[in-house]
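Predict the 3D structure for this chain.
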Amino acid sequence: MGYVFDFQNAGSYDAWFDPAKNKYRLDLEIKLMMDFLSPERGQRILDIGCGTGISLEPLLDKGLNLTGLDPSLYMLDLASKRLGSQVDLHRGSAEDLPFDDNAFDAAFFFTSLEFTDRPGKAIEEACRVAKDTIVICVLNRYSPLTIVRRVKSFFVPNIFTHAHFFSIWELKQILFAILGNVPAKWSTTLQFPFARGRIAAFVENNKIVQKSFFGALIAMKIKPVPKFRTRPLMLKLKKPKAYRPATGLATRMRS
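Done. Predicted structure below.
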């Protein structure tokens, strides 16, 4: 199941986004997630590791059927207060989703895969329950912001102490091991996490800039269509026997 947020974590999670710099970072991350998810009215969408509902909030009032899942009762309690009855909330593990095959059109992780024990199993489960699209948003191991966060967590334990940070290559390796060489699209954001403002946001949203390997957040979109290897089979055919007339037939007697 991985790390489950306790009461103290849940209470401080939303408060962490209150400062302007963190709110600016969140807005860029949410925008990239929404670009990749591209939700359409009537779709069934699952947020795996929904936490307090911050990642579901932008999807409200878009005519979607929304479901959120999280292992922490404390996080779900805050999500319920934030989202009301607009989202169907469940307690559960990402590695063992309590939903039927193809129950959703799309599923996404928003900085939640980092806290699972078996990320490969969590992705496999997402591919099982979502028939069209999987979007994975994770914190980039090689970004300057992540390096700062990791160093701080050594001296002052926080939620990042329990996180596993990913790279683009590692994420692709996990996906291809499960599904084969499926179509995968990726971008990053927060290339310049220590700057903010309209000019910085304009640069961050440039498609070329988002192809940097060092953005703080990686977004990856896949189509969960499995591909199978095939190999030709040798068919053994018996060579037909040559026709031989039967012997010992009666002959006509001459008179």
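The helical segments are 7-15, 20-37, 73-83, 119-129, 144-155, 168-179, 198-204.
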